[in-house]
């Protein structure tokens, strides 16, 4: 077994020397992909095109060259009066020039930081592209964050100017900046009507800087300070360079045999993942732009299903929640519909599963089964696909583990879903399943130029293939560091003897002999029961959370005799199942014996793959975890410690006491 020689380093972590097939930290370029176009493929040409793919070194290159190459194509779609109107690449390029003029007029120079508090919209992208064209740095924030979070980020980043989505955010941010953010000298509002002094529209109309000079960034220059919302403590500013994010675009191209099939020029997505997060920004915004594709900008989570019908995306970048929403909807329909329709739906899904199994084995459905599948596909499965707009060829999912049952369900209805894995600190993609090579239950193989390994969290020694350890990453996608936090940076990055840098993710997982990566939990979330057995809560929560009656779940049990859980129930699903009338509260459900009996059965039914000691013995219903009540991060991750602290009395009552233990708080 390879041993790691301990050496004195600033990080205090072990230093290791590894032989790797990765490209030594270089950004994998499409120049290395020549000759891969399929026979008959129409390969576009242009000044910066190689083998039909755009070449670039910075995000500024992506925007400028894409707009020059595909000027007449649709780029951004925005909802207006029942339909989506589209802005072309050329029109967007003009907006970027004006936005560059606005930033220049505001005194933004190379290295300055520009804050933006906004959901996705073309103005967000224009300000970002304009900032990059001045070698300035974007500092994106979420509308759902607290004003105190905004002020902390603005101060830590030293932002000079701030852009706000609407008047409400402008008012709250202005008050916060006046009180405690001296670095911000100007604030503009995207939605403010033209003529208002704080209007972004007015500033664009007034600027004489439409021809403001470009100060092109270098690949090593900072592009973004993305603040991790964090499940504990203050947010940390992740410093991502242009090279970091560009390496992700090139690296993901290499997951398929023919990169021209990964993202196509005629692809379209529905954009609802926040660009303030690296997943939405790198994987969707800049990647789609780099391939000449378009994206409709979703109005918001409540409107996703309607907007899918209007945009009809061919690609979808999502978290598991959307797919589970459709999965639960279909299974609720199966349970509530008449016997004939129920039989048709079950048969359609079963035949879809048989078709997938046959194709995975290198064959196909034959004879009568194929005829039945074709008939039921038209009657049933196509209607389910229509919920996604009817044009979806592949979905990508990350941000949280996607249960295999949901990926299998999507396969069975005819939409392959590729699960990936990454972190803000890795720009974000580390590994991803491809449409050509998927392993359900894994997060795929490392992207081009990236190496993934599992190490012993105790001594940092690399573990044998297939052994569970801390997942570590080597490659050009690793962040520069945490802004103003060298000690925190040193905690997660080791410098290897050959100069390469290794990022410690804090996630538990394995790397198989086939190089597929599997994430099994979070190192810091692991806790020990009173009997000494270790529990990783995430897999338990994922298994039980597959119930169509459960919306959210938090498992706990550190230093306790058994596990218990907090459950956010799907009230409507329970009402329909048990024929409950009237307004039903969570408290009503907790006192209803039929509901409790059903939920106990659901927990047992969904715990068959779990060890006996992992299964929660008791549960308590609670209200939804939200960003507003601080139990969700803006990227929809549960703040476990906040939920456990908030419901400490309820947790204690499940153990026969009234106060949660200090150990349980510490392990949250």
UniProtKB/TrEMBL annotation:
Keywords: ATP-binding, Nucleotide-binding
Keyword Nucleotide-binding listed: yes
Example GO molecular function: long-chain fatty acid-CoA ligase activity
Transmembrane segments: none
Cited SUPFAM superfamilies: Acetyl-CoA synthetase-like
Ranges where the AMP-dependent synthetase/ligase domain occurs: 65-483
Gene3D superfamilies with a match to the protein in the record: N-terminal domain of ligase-like
Top-rank lineage group of the source organism: Eukaryota
PANTHER family: AMP-BINDING DOMAIN-CONTAINING PROTEIN-RELATED, LONG-CHAIN-FATTY-ACID--COA LIGASE
Name of the protein this chain belongs to: AMP-dependent synthetase/ligase domain-containing protein
């Amino acid at each position: 077994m390879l041993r790691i020689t301990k050496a004195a380093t600033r990080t205090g972590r072990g230093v290791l020397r590894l032989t790797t097939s990765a490209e030594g930290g270089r950004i994998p370029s499409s120049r290395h992909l020549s000759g891969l176009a399929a026979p008959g493929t129409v390969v576009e040409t242009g000044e910066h095109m190689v083998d039909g793919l755009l070449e670039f070194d910075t995000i500024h290159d992506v925007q400028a060259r894409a707009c020059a190459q595909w000027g007449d194509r649709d780029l951004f779609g925005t909802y207006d009066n029942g339909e989506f109107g589209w802005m072309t690449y050329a029109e967007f390029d003009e907006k970027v020039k004006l936005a560059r003029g606005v930033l220049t007029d505001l005194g933004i120079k190379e290295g300055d930081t520009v804050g933006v508090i906004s959901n996705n919209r073309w103005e967000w992208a224009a300000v970002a592209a304009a900032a990059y064209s001045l070698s300035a740095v974007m500092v994106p924030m979420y509308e759902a964050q607290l004003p105190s979070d905004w002020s902390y980020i603005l101060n830590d980043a030293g932002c000079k100017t701030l852009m706000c989505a609407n008047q409400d955010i402008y008012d709250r941010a202005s008050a916060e900046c006046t009180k405690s953010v001296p670095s911000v000298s100007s604030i503009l509002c995207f939605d403010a009507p033209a003529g208002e002094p704080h209007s972004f529209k007015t500033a664009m109309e007034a600027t004489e800087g439409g021809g403001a000079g470009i100060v092109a960034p270098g690949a090593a220059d900072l592009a973004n300070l993305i603040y991790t919302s964090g499940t504990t403590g203050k947010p940390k500013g992740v410093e991502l360079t242009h090279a970091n994010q560009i390496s992700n675009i090139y690296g993901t191209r290499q997951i398929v045999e023919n990169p021209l099939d990964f993202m196509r020029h005629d692809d379209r997505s529905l954009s609802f993942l926040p660009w303030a997060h690296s997943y939405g920004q790198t994987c969707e915004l800049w990647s789609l732009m780099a391939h000449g594709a378009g994206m409709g900008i979703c109005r918001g989570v409540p409107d996703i299903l309607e907007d899918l019908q209007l945009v009809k995306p061919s690609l979808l970048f999502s978290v598991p929640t959307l797919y589970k929403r459709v999965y639960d909807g279909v299974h609720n329909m199966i349970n509530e519909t008449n016997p004939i329709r129920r039989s048709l739906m079950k048969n359609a899904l079963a035949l879809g599963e048989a078709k997938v199994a046959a194709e995975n084995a290198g064959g196909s459905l034959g004879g009568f089964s194929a005829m039945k599948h074709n008939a039921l596909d038209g009657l049933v499965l196509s209607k389910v696909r229509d919920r996604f707009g009817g044009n979806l060829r592949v979905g990508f999912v990350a941000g949280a583990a996607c249960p295999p049952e949901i990926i299998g369900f999507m396969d069975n209805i005819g939409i392959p879903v590729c699960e990936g894995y990454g972190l803000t600190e890795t720009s974000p993609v580390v590994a991803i399943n491809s449409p050509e090579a998927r392993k359900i239950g894994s997060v795929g193989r490392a992207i081009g130029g990236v190496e993934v390994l599992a190490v012993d969290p105790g001594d940092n020694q690399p573990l044998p293939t297939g052994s569970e350890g801390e997942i570590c990453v080597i490659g050009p996608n690793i962040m520069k560091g945490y802004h103003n936090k060298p000690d925190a940076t040193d905690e997660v990055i080791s410098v290897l003897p050959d100069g390469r840098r290794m990022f410690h993710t804090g996630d538990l997982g394995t790397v198989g002999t086939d190089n597929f990566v599997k994430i099994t939990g979070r190192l810091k979330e692991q806790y020990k029961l009173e009997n000494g057995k270790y529990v990783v809560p995430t897999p338990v929560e994922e298994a039980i959370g597959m119930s169509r009656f459960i919306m959210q779940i938090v498992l706990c049990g550190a230093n306790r005799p058994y596990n218990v859980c907090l459950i956010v129930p799907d009230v409507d699903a329970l009402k329909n199942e048990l024929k409950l009338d009237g307004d039903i509260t969570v408290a009503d459900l907790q006192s209803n014996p039929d509901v409790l009996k059903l939920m106990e059965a659901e927990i047992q039914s969904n715990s068959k793959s779990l060890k006996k000691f992992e299964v929660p013995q008791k549960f308590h219903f609670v209200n939804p975890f939200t960003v507003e009540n601080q139990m969700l991060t803006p990227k929809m991750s549960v703040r476990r410690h906040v939920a456990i602290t908030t419901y400490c009395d309820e947790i204690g009552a499940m153990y026969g006491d009234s106060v949660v233990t200090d150990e349980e708080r510490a392990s949250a």
